[in-house]
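dumping this here so i dont lose it
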């Protein structure tokens, strides 16, 4: 958009093949890409700022529900969580979604509390923006419909709902325009995803498996989130490295003392939180417990829409704040008792909670930075004269199936303004020159498999270079 001045109706893709999100995540990156001159630090700073701001939103929501002290304690625990720190460090569309679900929850709560009517505008905005980040948040749509219905029955006037509904439609409308213009590819992709996953098993078995997964996740997800365990398998920098959530085992942590300590401690915390929820249900705080349960039940229901073998931990990113709200209720219950030993115990719990959170199981290695890619791009730019060109890559990461050299493509287009063809098969077929970037040790570059190479059909290698960062570049022609 910044380079070619072409605006888009679609955003990032999702797990289902051929399904796109609305585009406003991309539009929100524009100021940061422009301000930081296309350097990758710009989107990362944007993500970090929303991560920091989410702590403030969490505090406001927890304060409304349980008071200042429980809000401060739970906000501290929230801010030190290893998973939340990790997702706020790097730009990826799901990594900012919990900011907007928190904003939606705060708007939802304050509207119900009878505060400013502007929250009826903020709620559809925040939920619509969250849909731009991932479709998992669609499970909160019934909550927004509930707000609209409540406003209608309270005022008996649809005029009050005109602008809130318009706000929601505006932020999701580009994807519907795209659908109509391109013969409904999203709809077809979603239907294909739902129909073809688990096609060889009975519907009753599939339904039972999904229900069991939901029930198990009520324990597994918060236990993993609080402890920071299995982070290397759930939230790596490279999404191609993450494991399916069903294949991530907490039990393997019992093999070492540190993992066992964390599991036992946080399991006891979960049990204590559940106990306090039951106790608070019998008090005047029942409404706050209903509020938390409403979002948790709605959020965990997303599991029902994913066939076994298609769900990842990051699909729960939108739900991350709500287990911490349950922790806020736990400290609210303890502090209300006004017993000195309980207050001392709560202080000790906070210290242990924060200490364990500060030492996640593994420090995740940084992704390769700009300095790795730019020398290669400089060599290609220096050689380019004219004609239709495309690029491909033999990546050192063997878990990557693609050869479209996405990272190199970004820098060639953003920094050097090279007129690269797209990554569709037809683009490779029509190109005159292909630059193959080898991060490994290809013995016969012309025989590299994959759509990119096969569509281009290289016959000879015109030139070969080796960048100072170690990659080899082959200029291929037909």
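and the seq i came up w/
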């Amino acid at each position: 958009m910044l380079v070619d001045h072409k605006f888009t109706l679609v955003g990032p893709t999702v797990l289902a093949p051929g399904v796109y999100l609305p585009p406003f995540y991309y539009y929100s990156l524009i100021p940061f890409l422009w301000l930081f001159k296309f350097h990758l630090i710009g989107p990362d700073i944007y993500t970090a700022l929303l991560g920091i701001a989410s702590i403030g939103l969490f505090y406001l929501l927890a304060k409304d529900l349980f008071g200042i002290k429980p809000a401060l304690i739970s906000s501290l625990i929230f801010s030190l969580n290893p998973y939340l720190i990790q997702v706020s460090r790097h730009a990826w569309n799901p990594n900012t979604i919990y900011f907007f679900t928190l904003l939606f929850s705060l708007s939802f709560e304050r509207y119900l509390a009878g505060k400013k009517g502007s929250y009826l505008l903020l709620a559809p905005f925040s939920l619509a923006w969250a849909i731009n980040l991932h479709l998992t948040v669609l499970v909160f749509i019934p909550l927004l419909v509930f707000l609209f219905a409540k406003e209608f029955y309270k005022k008996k006037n649809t005029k009050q709902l005109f602008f809130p509904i318009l706000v929601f439609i505006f932020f999701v409308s580009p994807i519907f325009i795209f659908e109509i213009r391109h013969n409904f590819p999203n709809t077809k992709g979603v239907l294909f995803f739902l129909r073809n996953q688990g096609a060889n098993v009975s519907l009753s078995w599939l339904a039972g498996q999904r229900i069991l997964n939901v029930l198990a996740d009520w324990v597994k997800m918060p236990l993993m989130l609080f402890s920071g365990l299995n982070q290397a398998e759930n939230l790596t920098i490279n999404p191609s490295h993450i494991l399916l959530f069903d294949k991530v085992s907490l039990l393997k942590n019992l093999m070492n003392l540190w993992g066992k300590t964390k599991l036992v401690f946080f399991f006891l915390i979960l049990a204590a939180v559940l106990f306090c929820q039951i106790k608070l249900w019998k008090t005047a705080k029942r409404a706050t417990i209903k509020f938390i349960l409403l979002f948790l039940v709605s959020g965990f229901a997303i599991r029902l829409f994913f066939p076994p073998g298609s769900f990842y931990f990051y699909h729960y990113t939108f739900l991350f704040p709500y287990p911490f709200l349950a922790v806020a209720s736990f400290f609210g219950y303890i502090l209300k008792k006004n017993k000195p030993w309980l207050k001392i115990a709560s202080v000790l719990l906070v210290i242990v909670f924060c200490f364990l959170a500060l030492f996640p199981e593994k420090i995740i290695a940084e992704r390769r930075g700009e300095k790795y890619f730019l020398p290669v791009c400089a060599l290609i730019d220096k050689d380019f004269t004219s004609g239709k060109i495309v690029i491909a890559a033999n990546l050192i990461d063997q878990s990557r199936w693609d050869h479209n050299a996405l990272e190199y493509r970004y820098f060639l287009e953003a920094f050097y303004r090279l007129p690269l063809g797209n990554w569709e098969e037809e683009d490779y077929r029509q190109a005159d020159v292909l630059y193959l970037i080898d991060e490994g040790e290809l013995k016969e570059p012309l025989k590299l498999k994959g759509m990119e190479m096969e569509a281009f059909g290289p016959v000879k290698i015109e030139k070969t270079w080796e960048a100072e960062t170690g990659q080899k570049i082959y200029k291929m022609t037909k």
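The radius of gyration is 25 Å.
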